[in-house]
Amino acid sequence: MCIPLLALYRRLTAPLSRSIRTRALCITLFLSLLPLFSLGGYAYLVARSATLQVEVQGIRTHAEDLARALDDYLTEQRRFVTLIARHPILRSFSAAPPEGRSNLRSPALADLANFLKTNPSYEAAYLLDPRGQVILSTDETPDPHAASRPYFLRALAGETYASEPSLPGSE
Question: Which of 39, 52, 81, 98 has its CA 20 to 30 A from that of 119?
Fold first, then answer.
């Protein structure tokens, strides 16, 4: 079995090794196909680079659109919070002495609950006094350390505070 294969190999390669004409033909074929393969490789690299640039531009455009949408969302949320903070019932409730708040408690709590209903991004709403004590809350267990939290300290200084985004239950 090995001998017929060897003989076949010798028959196929013998003309190549003996004929200058065959060698010249192979070299000519190789040299004529070389520019074609080179051009194909170059075209592939150019196409890949162009595709990458288009993808990068698409990602950049998407990121800019997302940043604009987030800015719009934050602006809208600040507007909602400002509106609820200026609400007359909540202002009356917070300005009233503790003994005078009982008749304002239900409408003020209803306003906070309505705010949460229309703004599902928030889990709870608190109304704090200037010392950071919770005077009204939609949460059964309000933050006992609100006076030391950045949101309270910044609000007390007259600044706007936006916490880092988080998913519910990820704390």
Answer: 98
Q: Is 171 helix (H, G, I), strand (E, B) or coil?
A: coil
Each residue of 73-130: pLDDT tens digit?
A: 888 888 888 888 888 998 898 889 988 888 999 999 999 999 889 888 888 888 888 8
Are 123 and 139 in contact, with CB atoms under 8 Å apart? yes
Three-state DSSP class for residue 134: strand
DSSP state of 146: G
What is the Rg, in whole angstroms, of the alpha carbon atoms belonging to the chain? Answer: 38
Q: Position of tokens 């075209």?
A: 43
**How many Cα atoms are found within 13 Å in the side-chain-facing hemisphere of 123?**
12
Helix (H, G, I), strand (E, B) or coil at 78: helix
7, 9, 18, 19, 29 from 14: Cα distances, Å: 10, 8, 6, 8, 19
- Pick from 137, 95, 133: nearest CA to 115: 137
Return d(Cα 64, Cα 72) in angstroms, integer: 12
Give the number of residues written for the chain: 171
